Every structure is written in structure tokens, then in C-alpha cells.
Amino acid sequence: MKKAGIIGIGSYVPDRVVTNLDLEKMVDTTDEWIKTRTGISLRRIGPENACTSDMGAEAARKALEHARLSPENIDLIIVASASPDMIFPSTACIIQSKIGASNAAAFDIQAGCTGFVYALTCAVQFIVSGMYKNILVVGAEMLSRITDWEDRNTCVLFGDGAGAVVISEVEEGGILSSYLGADGTGADLLILPAGGSKEPASIDTVAKRRHFIQMNGNEVFKFAVRILEEAARKATEKANLSMNDVDYIVPHQANIRIIDAAVKRLKFPREQLVMNLDRYGNMSSASIPVALDEAYRDKRIKRGDIVLLVGFGAGLTWGANLLEWSID
Ligand code: ACO
What are phi and psi of 323, to 5 degrees? Predict the structure, then answer.
């Protein structure tokens, strides 16, 4: 059976930094509350004249360059985003046009913050089946556009950014196992209520601020701790490995307390966690690929390392990919 792995990686975050002190001027919050309750100090916010596909295209170009492939070599683009440019066309089609990947099919995946893990898992199936050779997987978010900057419960959490990987057949290592799950009975816990067919945009939906993220933070928190542990265990078991074999966990960066509680249950050493939440906040589908790119570039993750990516988010959805890093 063919093996699929990451052969190129890149990421992009916008220049503009918004600090907790900036947020103190906007809503009734404090730097201390945000740091202690979430672990976040800074987040990046995209420029007014940019959108999700611009950031996704930047990350995609870097991943292609790293993989030493030209855009024409890409057979498929899968974009994971909870903040796409539009409901349709897909952000994947827009990125295809922006980077000139004229031979690629393209579609989006909507799985909340688990989007990147879902997209990567999907890409692996196309490679191992032999249908495609090179697939670009992008996690890109401009959450600042769907964040209610008057709601202190949510606006302190999110940030903008994008990460991308190129998936191809590899001789050694690659994706060892994938595990996905969903529970739609929790759909109401994390939601952008209006703008779809259920609540089309109207003066009323705008007045009631229903085009912004709404979240039941406590319930999402409890779900996230339980599911992070479960997804990590399931993916390692599927590969006939144990948590002791894992060199790094790259978790979805939602809240430091969620991650601390889950790794305590897993008895996993905290120093082997890849974290960037303090500098970027929760970038949903972009959190994992940006953190992975940083850990590879600063030479923490090296060829042969066993790396576990774990995501959880709106849907509710969750999932994990266990991989052996195969790039020098
Ligand atoms: N500043 C100051 N006080 C605040 C703030 C703030 N920014 N936000 C909430 N509070 C207040 C609340 O109003 C509440 O006050 P009250 O007791 O007077 O009512 C108090 O702080 C405690 O509120 P809790 O919601 O209980 O605070 P908690 O410790 O649970 O932290 C948080 C809230 C950070 C949202 C946490 O629940 C969390 O991280 N949940 C998970 C979020 C998450 O992971 N979301 C993303 C999932 S991924 C995706 O798909 C997008």
C-alpha cells in the first residue's frame, strides 16, 4: 500500500498584532484575566483589504516552494476554513486561481477547528488510492471578520493566520494513522447562526449580531478536554503505538487550560507540546499547520520524529493524525 506524507510546509500570519491591553480598551476585560483563563497574550489580525484566501494563498506558495513543486504540479487543493471568503464559491477555488494551480481540482472542508485534521485525512485517501500525486492542504482563517468585538466572552480568543502542507507519496514515514469523529447533537455549542439558509441575512439578523461567533464556553471546554485525550489515544492505538512513542503533540490551540488538563490525563511531558497559542490565539483550522511549521523551522521537529496532531471544534468535531516526520 502507498504511504502518504508531508513533503512541504509553509505558513503566514498577518503583521498587525493586537495585545490584551488593546482589548482592555474595547471590552470589559483585563490582560490578567485573558492570560490566566486562556493563555493568550497576543493575536494577529489581517488587514482590511485582505481575506481568508489571500492568507491561504501566501501559506500555499511557501509550502509549494518548500516542496520544490510548481503550482501546475498540484492535482487537488483542499481548504479547511470556518471563515471562508464566501459561502460559495469555495475558498479552495479562489486559492487555486490566486496561485495558478490550473491543473488542480478544489474543494473546501467545514469541520470547525478540526478542519485541518479532516482535510489532511481526506488528502491521504486520495494519495494511497493512487488517484492523485500531489495535494495541497490549507488551513486558513480570518476569524476577526466573524468575531463580535463587543463580546468579551469570545473576542479575546481568536486570531487570523494560515498554514499549508503538500501531501505526496513518501517512501518512509508519513501519515501512520488518522482518526475522525463528530457529534452533531452539540452543534449549538459553537455556532455562527445567521447568513445561511436557516437564518438568511436580514436587518434583524444584523441588529441582533447573529453574523458573529457564539459559544457556550464552559460546555466546549469540558468536551475539548475529554475528546483531546480520546482522539490522541485512538490515533496512537490505530498505529499500534503508545503515547510513549510520541515525540511531539501539536494540539489545536484553543485554551492552555484545555491542553494542560488533557496532557495531564495522557501523562504526556509538557515540554514535548508544540504551543503558539500565547502569540496567535485560536486560529481554528490554521492553528495546527502554523504550529507545525514553526516547530519544524526552529528545528524541534526532525526527520523520524513521531508527531501527533489533535483537533477539536465546532460541529462538534474532533480528530487526530499520527505521523512520522519525513522531511530534513
Ligand atoms: N474578561 C473578563 N471576564 C470574562 C471574560 C473576559 N474576556 N470572558 C468571560 N468573563 C467572565 C464571565 O462573564 C464570567 O463572569 P460571571 O461569573 O460574573 O458570570 C466569568 O468570567 C467566568 O466565565 P466562564 O465562562 O466560566 O470562564 P471560563 O473560565 O470557563 O473561561 C473560556 C471562558 C475562556 C471561554 C473557556 O470556557 C474556554 O476556553 N472554553 C473553550 C473555548 C474553545 O475552546 N473554543 C474554541 C473551540 S474550537 C472552534 O471550533 C472555534
Answer: -140, 155
